[in-house]
Amino acid sequence: MVLHWLIALGMICNVALALSADYLPDDWVRPVIDLHKSIGITVLGLAIVRILWRVTHKPPPLPEHFPRWERAAAHAAHVLLYVLIFALPISGWLHDSAWKDAATHPMSLFHIVPWFRLGFIMDLPPALKEHLHDVFGAIHTAFGYVLYVVLALHILGALKHELIDRESVLRRMLP
C-alpha cells in the first residue's frame, strides 16, 4: 500500500510539474525540471522495489462477482500502469542524457545526491545526440499522455465501484 501511494503521489506530482512548466516564469523552469527529474528517478527506484515486492506478495483478487470485463479492464490498466511506471522515468532519463548541455549541468536528486546520466548516450556524436534528445522527448511526452488517460480511467473505475456500485475497492489500498 505504501509503495502504491508513494508512486502514485510521485507520478501525480510529476504530471502537475510537467503541465505547469510552460506557464512558469523563466527563472522557475530549471528548478521545476530538476524537481521533475528527481521525482522521476525516485519513482523508478520505488517501482523496482514494488516489482520485487509483487514477485513475493500477490495482490488480493478482485471480487468474483465483478463482471469479467471489469476484472479484465482493471488487470489491463494495472499492467499498463506498471509499464508506464518504468517507461516514463527511463524515457525521461534517456531524454535528459541526450541533452546537449548535460555535460556542463550536473544532475542531482533533490540537490543532495549526485546522479549520473547515461554515458552510452552522452558519448554519442552531437548531431545524433540532438536527434535522440528530440526522439526521447517525444516518446516521454507520449508516455505522459498515455499515463494521463490510464490514470484517469484507473481513478474513475475506483470511484465508480466506491460511489455507484457501493463496493469499496479503495479499502484494499487503505490501511
Structure, explained:
This protein is mostly helical and 175 residues long. It has one domain (2-173): Up-down Bundle (Fumarate Reductase Cytochrome B subunit). It has helices at residues 2-20, 26-56, 68-97, 119-122, 126-164; strands at residues 107-109, 113-115. It has a two-stranded antiparallel ribbon with strand order 1-2. Strand 1 and strand 2 form a beta hairpin. Helix 1 (2-20) runs antiparallel to helix 2 (26-56), helix 2 (26-56) crosses helix 3 (68-97) and helix 3 (68-97) runs antiparallel to helix 5. The radius of gyration is 18 Å and the shape is elongated.
Relative strand content:
under 5%
Helicity, as a percent range: over 70%
The domain count comes to 1
Low-pLDDT runs of 5+ residues are none
Q: With helices defined by DSSP (H or I, 4 residues minimum), what is the helix count?
A: 5
Give the biggest beta sheet: 2 strands, antiparallel
Radius of gyration: 18 Å
Total beta-strand segments: 2
Instruction: Write down the overall mean pLDDT.
Output: 90
> Which sequence of SSEs, written as H and E, runs from N to C?
HHHEEHH
The first-to-last residue Cα distance is: 8 Å
In quaternary terms, these chains amount to single chain
